[in-house]
Hints:
Blueprint: H1 2-22, H2 26-42, H3 47-67, E1 91-93, E2 101-106, E3 109-115, E4 125-132, E5 135-140
Parallel strand pairs: 3-5
Antiparallel strand pairs: 1-4, 2-3, 4-5
Amino acid sequence: xxxxxxxxxxxxxxxxxxxxxxxxxxxxxxxxxxxxxxxxxxxxxxxxxxxxxxxxxxxxxxxxxxxxxxxxxxxxxxxxxxxxxxxxxxxxxxxxxxxxxxxxxxxxxxxxxxxxxxxxxxxxxxxxxxxxxxxxxxxxxxxxxxx
Length: 147
């Protein structure tokens, strides 16, 4: 009977260690099921009840995680994601606009530049907010620091 209790606690520890390697929280929810079953075993419940407790607690915990903000998969558009494009957030100077488009020197090459929706052409200093192919989408820079 004691071997079943050891199984639940070792299993919970293994799930927690694996969770630390994966970083998804799902194995942590399964570890909660193992802990609940270990507590049920400690309370004297038969093996069938322990298995049922582990399954129910793990399923409820996984379902609660899926409904929480931690369980939702949020995909960012790569064109606006600074983790994908290192140019996003970089400063850019544009001297002249024509129909909300321009050409500007950036990183040693001429780039096509387009104003983001709602932005005006009256600023001189801009910040890259997105990339669309080889076109930089820019918005007026809020804080200009002298170089």
